[in-house]
Amino acid sequence: MKSTINYIAEIFRAIWSLLTGMKVTAKYFFTPWNNVTQQYPENRDTLVMFDRFRGEVIMPHNENNEHKCTGCGICEINCPNGSIEIISKSIVNEEGKKKRIIDQHIYHLAMCTFCNLCVKTCPSEAIVMGQKFEHAYWNRTSMTKVLNQPGSKIMEGIKE
Amino acid sequence: MTNEQLIEKLSSAYPDAVVKQGNQYPEITVAHDKMHAFMQYLKSDSTMAFDYLVCESGVDYPAFIQVVYHLESTTHQHFLVVKANTENRETAVLDTVSDIWPTAEFHEDEIFDLLGITFTNHPHLRRLFLDETWGFPLRKDFHDDIHVVER
Amino acid sequence: MAEIKIITTDEIKTDEYLVNMGPQHPSTHGVLRLLVKLEGEIVHNVEPHVGYIHSGIEKMTEALSYPQIIHLTDRMDYLSAHMNNEAVCLCIENALQVEVPERVKYIRTIFDELQRLASHQLWWCASGMDLGALTAFFYGLRDREDILDIFEETCGARLTLNYSVPGGVMFDIHPNFQSKVKAFIKKFRKTLPEYDKLLTGNIIFQNRTKGVGVLSKEDAIAFGVTGPTGRASGFSCDVRKHHPYSAYPYIKFDEKLGTDGDSFMRWKLRMDEMWESLNIIEQLIDNIPEGDIAVKMKGVIKLPEGEFYQRVETGRGEFGVYIVSDGKKNPYRVKFRSPGFSNLFTINHIAKNWKIADLVAIMATFDLVIPDIDR
Amino acid sequence: MAFEKYDFTPLTQAIHKALIENVSPLLTTIIEWTIIGVLFLLFIAIFGLLLVYVERKVCAAFQQRLGPMRVGPWGLLQTIADFVKLLMKELITPKSVDKFLYNLAPFIVIIVPFLTISVIPFAPGLQALDFDIGIFFVTAVSSVGVIGVLLAGWASNNKYSLIGGMRSGAQIVSYELSVGMSLITMVILAGTMQISEIVELQRGGWFLFKGHIPAVLAFFVFVVAGTAETNRGPFDLAEAESELTAGFHTEYSGIKFAFFFLAEYINLFIVSAMATIVFLGGWMPFHFGDWAAFNNVMDFIPGLVWFFIKVFGIIFLIMWFKWTFPRLRIDQILTLEWKYLLPINLFNILLMATMVLLGWHW
């Protein structure tokens, strides 16, 4: 007799446990306004990344097309993946001294792991992390970027 | 047991082993032929009872390959680092401890795979990660022109 | 009358056959290959074959400087990225005898626990999916998103955080950090009981996991099974408790210990750990002391000659970093003791004579992350 | 009554009359068969696609997602696009399969819904075959599907498929019993196996209410066993994704896979339709006691609509099961059948028989 009662009680307990689970899913079924899906390409304009988001390395230029990069190569040394290449050139400045300045700051986005070490170690804060997150390209060469814009020069007052 | 007691006990029990206090934990270096018996002793001795092999790692030195055992006792909560050197780099052979701690079986597979130490009496020594075409990558003289780009 | 011969099941044994579960199998969560020997549905032998995602991190570290190593550890156990980062940082700080500011300790511990929560949430939803409850998968990911947003706001990355640096943390916490974490805790305290309602209490789930894949305490110790998996067997192995680091010495928390060591216990223990993590964060979040976020380190970090070992508790168990330094700017040898590696290889021991569906349940409750195993 | 005006009998009679007056009886039969066949083909194709869409949307809503949204408004054309894709896909036949059986299996699986659907009364007068052993026919024919599943599992020459096929075989053979028994319980109440008559008998009240406790029990068992018979979660062991990748149809591609897929959904419809017919009064509107006004309003809704409202209610219930529960293990599935559902069923038949004998039902 006792085993029969247990048998029936077990069935009811089992059904009850199933109903509790169904209650949870039903709660979400009937509250569709809580849905978490975002319609991505449509809501592109409303998407704001956090200001510290590490999307890609960029070199900010001011309105005079000037940047802060001295071409010291510390970022290149600190990059664990070799995704930064600094090509510098020698110029002769007004005082007649030979000076090495940056020619091309090459950034291989495809090799970057976004570890932030280059930005962190940059002595003149010339490179920062950008907010762009849509890094899909049709070919690999477009993932190699030159960060300093053509014709740009170094800002006044940046120490070597 | 405190570290001092542990060092004292071990140095009296195994006078020819090098016992010293390392940076964090007591360290003991045992000869490769006595290693297995020593490990057995570490586990079975009730005052030490090192029953938990935390980590087993191989290090390639110029003259020999070292296997480092990090041992902990779950009853006494003390920690010991045991080092065993192979005779030389060419015949890198050590006794297995997988009969003492089953977890060592797979750590030793890994060490065999990456450093090329052959563990005798190991039940199932095999390359764990890499296939047969590879050398032993964690050895310092390993060179791979295909996969490794050096700057 | 003809004699009736009674045939036992042993005598009508059929042939065993091999099934490759993986490297691309839905339940192995990555590229793990299990060579399963089956008789009908009964598992007779499981042989894990790893190495499909072996990336040679230990070899790579030998060519990198110490700060550069840290970002590689993100990619091992990607669900416990911050704990891995912290382990390397602590090891370096220990070697250099650097005392990090109190603020750093608090921030790191909060991050640890948030990361643990995120890891357990993903484990919860993924193992729900393994057991066939697909809806759980989305609920878990939904809640994990909140934590990832908190991470992203403070350190700019969601998964591969690379937040700890030798001597401190990379950024100060975001001004919104505390309020967001508190809001998350409040919200998650409400949704966590739903996890129990949906699966833990469910009769089908309990039948699937109770008594399945029992790992005894002795075996757990012998196989070096740590983390929630080991603690479910009663193996007290919480590094946070036994060898406290960062801010863990300052706080009160329980090390949850199980007794049964079956799949259900492993499940229950992780659920309990989520509650405990919430408690830990609550103790810390309002008390973050003011101060620097990093000690000034040398431009080129060189460790003194010697060997250094640091253990931390990740979402999966005990993570160890063993650094052998020869005094140069690159380490001589780095070994990562990953929890998943030791945990995985017990699977043959405990999945024997269970059904193939139980093997999936056991793997689900082991919470394996394959890059953690392969490194 | 008001809903009588939705009767399809005059329409079908008119067609029949027009045909028989103009062409020979043989040609009439052939034409009628063709019409019915084409209608069923269309119905199965369209309803299958609709069900796939509904399942996607329902499951998305349970999971706080939106589901398909890209193809067509609200993703309405998504399943059609998928179906077109499946139609155009290459049919890959793995090298080592048993070619004949491998190709045969999807057809056996798809035949079953075509056969069973013929006895389902969608609305008054809208039923292709009205046997006097209709219920028996449904239970008999629906067991054929398992042969297809077993063949698919065997012929694929894939271990996962084989395990899936064997699981499915064990499961369906067991649950056939429960489905049959719960239907028998209701047959005892109805006193007939003719489906049109069973529906007609529920004019005064649905059997679910008429037969009270045993009917509710039988309904519960039928829904559980029906879910199991359609191989749907939590009983989807045969294709258990996380264990067997896709189970018995792992090796199928293109339209052959679509057959399995379609058959699953049409079987879902048939199980729901049978539950509707036997327990919820088929196309009968919902009446509540003596509320004449309420009942009149209900009568204005056509029988076809009533039928589909009820069917979709049960389909939703079964989908709700699938998207909430974890999967059972093979031995637990058999335990559930042989240790719980079968004893309950046997007891239930006894109860129902006693009740009908003593006239305790309404």
Give a short summary of the structure.
The complex is a heterotetramer of chains A (160), B (151), C (375) and D (362). Chain C has 375 residues and is of the alpha+beta class. Helices cover 47% and strands 12% of the residues of chain C.
How would you characterize this protein structure?
The complex is a heterotetramer of chains A (160), B (151), C (375) and D (362). Chain B is 22% helix and 26% strand. With 151 residues, chain B is α/β, with parallel strands linked by helices. In chain B, strand 1 (18-21) and strand 2 form a beta hairpin. The termini of chain B are far apart. The model of chain B has no long low-confidence stretch (mean pLDDT 83). Chain C is α+β, with helices and mostly antiparallel strands. Chain C has one domain (54-374): Cytochrome-c3 Hydrogenase, chain B. In chain C, a hairpin with a 4-residue loop joins strand 6 and strand 7. The termini of chain C are far apart. Chain D starts with 8 loop residues before the first helix and ends with a helix. In chain D, helix 2 packs across helix 12 and helix 7 runs antiparallel to helix 10. By secondary structure, chain D is mainly alpha-helical. Chain D has one domain (92-358). The interface between C and D is medium-sized, with 31 and 28 residues.
Helix content of chain A: 10-25%
Please report the two chains with the greatest interface, counting residues with C-beta closer than 8 angstroms to the partner's C-beta.
B-C, 33 and 36 residues
**Average pLDDT figure of chain D:** 82
Shape of chain A: elongated
Uncertain stretches of 5 or more adjacent residues of chain A: none
Main β-sheet, spatial strand arrangement of chain A:
3-4-6
Beta-strand content of chain D: under 5%
Number of helices of chain D: 15
- Class computed from helices, strands and strand pairing of chain A: alpha+beta
**Spatial shape of chain D:** globular
**Roughly what percent helix of chain D?**
55-70%
Tally the helices of chain A: what do you get?
3
CATH topology of the largest domain in chain A: Alpha-Beta Plaits
Q: What oligomeric state do the depicted chains represent?
A: heterotetramer
C-alpha Rg of chain D, in Å?
Answer: 21 Å
What would CATH call the architecture of the largest domain in chain A?
2-Layer Sandwich
- Total strand count of chain A, please? 7
Structural class determined from secondary elements of chain D: mainly alpha
- Gyration radius from CA atoms of chain A, angstroms: 29 Å
Mind summarizing the main beta sheet of chain D?
none
